[in-house]
Amino acid sequence: MAGRVRATLSSLLILSSALLTLASGGATKVVQGQKTWCIAKPSADEATLAANLNFACSQADCSVLQRGWSCFYPDTLMSHASIAMNLYYQSKGRNYWNCYFKGSALIVTTDPSFGSCLYASA
């Protein structure tokens, strides 16, 4: 379990450094055809993560987060919120505004998938 926590923290630090920095007029632009994912900011508080998880799963199929499914572990709010936020972002067309979540999310270009949990990408 401690190894999973360390791996998750390491992944989140790497992912947070991979934030897209192509900005114009305050809007993030994505290079045509580039794969992107939406994850929770490591600094997001638990109440915000819980709200994001609930909202995203009310709009997208979060069945992969259920016990016994590929993305249940690690069973942390940060991990589950990130997966749910990405599912929402992907299902809504990968627009930067679909990864805002009141400033608690990041768009990354590094695939955050781990183990058997594959993050969706378009």
Quick structural summary:
By secondary structure, the protein is of the alpha+beta class.
Features:
122 residues, alpha+beta, two-stranded antiparallel ribbon, 4 strands
What features would you describe in this structure?
Strands 1-2 form a two-stranded antiparallel ribbon. A two-stranded antiparallel ribbon has the order 3-4. Strand 1 and strand 2 (27-28) form a beta hairpin. The longest helix is centred in the first third of the chain and has 16 residues, at 2-17. The chain is built from 3 helices and 4 strands, in the order H-E-E-E-H-H-E. Residues 1-29 have low confidence and may be disordered. 37% of the residues lie in helices and 10% in strands. The chain is α+β, with helices and mostly antiparallel strands and 122 residues long. Helix 2 (46-59) packs parallel to helix 3 (77-91). Residues 1-23 form the signal peptide. It comes from Ensete ventricosum. One of its GO terms (cellular component) is plasmodesma. This is X8 domain-containing protein. InterPro entries: X8, X8_dom_prot.
